[in-house]
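Please review this one:
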Amino acid sequence: MTATATIRMARPTDPTPVTLRSRLGSAFAMFRNAKSITGLAILGFFVLVAIFADVLAPYSPTKVDNTARFQPPSAAHWLGTTHIGEDVLSQVIHGTRGVIVVGFLAAIIATIIAIVVGVVSGYLRGWRSESLSALTNVFLVIPGLPLIIIVASMVEDAPLVLIAAVLGLTGWAWGARVLRAQTMSLRNRDFIQAARANGEPLSRIIAVEMLPNLMALIAASFVGTVTAAILGLTTLSYIGVIPVDTYNWGTILNWASAQGAFRQNQWWWYLPPGLCIAAIGVALSLINFGIDEYVNPRLRSAGERARAMKKKGLDVNDAVTAVRTPATSEESTA
């Protein structure tokens, strides 16, 4: 009886049940590396600037100071003024809101469509899957920028919401292709077959079983769409397709180019918005690199090995790792 009791006490406890919350937590573990954290911090800074633009901006972006035209940075105007005396810092701060709104709204629209079309077409079989795949191929060849130019020419003073909608409707196809390929690989896994055998509905299989395993690809697609939407917005604003009274970093560059700021070396007008575009591009690239490092097993193992070497005080770039040899008898005697 004592031996039986000992065996029962030594029996391991039941493992912690896997819930949707734990799966989502493991799915978002891709944002825990240094690259993703740095990128998220920079992106979060721009998001806060966009939210509190009215509080942070020292002036209204349209306020004119006739006594301070083409003024370089000073105590009154930290980033100088334009050709009619508008404060450049206030324009850059208010322009952040348009960039963030268009980037995230276009990415949300494109990601939702990519998830629905990509995952459903990857899970289903037969003509329905092929039809959704053909629809994806059609949208792959639709050029986004010329379509936006046509829409902007047809609609007077096209709002940023319309521009974001067009960017989102033309930017979902690549993400859908990737999600479809990964879903076709997942649908034959044992846990999907078990859920199907238990009679689980399609909506629950996709939402509970598949989407947590696709979070890394969905996040990478979302980040890529944000980058493309921001670059598309600034490009269209710079060439004058979007109304110039809608402030974003591209319209600031458009005004600077039209008034000869590049020729006259008025760097305080065109350099700040250019640096902001570069900074948010770096932030999104770091997030994408961090996701790729988490998804790719080779990059993930290499990163873990590099961090382990740094903790031990070893140089990661050394071609040959120094090996500590045991001390000889003479050295130990000395």
Remarks:
- DSSP finds 16 helices and no strands in the chain.
- The two ends are 61 Å apart (CA to CA).
- The CA atoms of residues 129 and 322 lie 56 Å apart.
